[in-house]
Structure formats: C-alpha cells, structure tokens
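TICKET: design request
STATUS: open
ATTACHED STRUCTURE:
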C-alpha cells in the first residue's frame, strides 16, 4: 500500500515538472484573458465599438473618447 502511494507521488511530481511547475487552470483566468490590440470593445457610454488600442480605459471600463470618459 505504501509502495503504491510512493509510486503515485513520484508520477504526480514528474507530471507536475513536465508542465513547467504550473498546474493548468480551469477557467480561473477566463475572465481575465489578455485582449489583443485589434480586439473590438464596446464604449460604456455610447455603445460604439473601438479597438483596444484606440480606447481609453478608466477604472477598468472602455470608452471611445475623452468626452465619453469624462
């Protein structure tokens, strides 16, 4: 019984090292995914779509211009 647990621990450690010391996340970062510069986002005020690169971010919300952000 102890031998089986020891073998299981060694196999689990090798699998952990194979993935670079990181465990795969299961949706934890799905809401925090990085947006590319070409991704369209919607302005919080006027519902216009602009690219992330052109948008203005205020307190985590995207705006199309200074007028909408202010």
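STATUS: resolved
RESOLUTION: sequence designed for all positions
ATTACHED SEQUENCE:
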């Amino acid at each position: 019984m102890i031998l089986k647990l020891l073998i299981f621990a060694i196999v689990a450690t090798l699998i952990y090292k194979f993935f670079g010391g990181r465990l795969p996340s299961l949706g934890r970062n799905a809401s925090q995914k990085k947006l590319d510069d070409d991704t369209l986002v919607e302005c919080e005020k006027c519902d216009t779509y602009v690219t992330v690169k052109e948008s203005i971010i205020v307190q985590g919300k995207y705006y199309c211009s200074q007028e909408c952000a202010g």
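CLOSING REMARK: The mean pLDDT is 83. Residues 2-69 form one domain.
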